[in-house]
Specification:
Number of strands: 0
Radius of gyration: 17 Å
Distance between the termini: 53 Å
Number of helices: 2
Strand content: under 5%
Length: 42
């Protein structure tokens, strides 16, 4: 398997990478919110 010569451009315009980053951001935000919400209830 070989990388494309323009792999950076491919990653920049790949929607799958953007959606993975968005999902990771949503997951981490949700976990942080739940953590602070449970800590505030104590």
């Amino acid at each position: 398997m070989h990388l494309l010569p323009n792999w950076r451009a491919v990653l920049r315009y790949a929607w799958s990478v953007r959606l993975m980053l968005l999902a990771a951001l949503k997951f981490s935000t949700e976990q942080t919110y739940q953590f602070f919400r449970s800590a505030a209830a104590l």
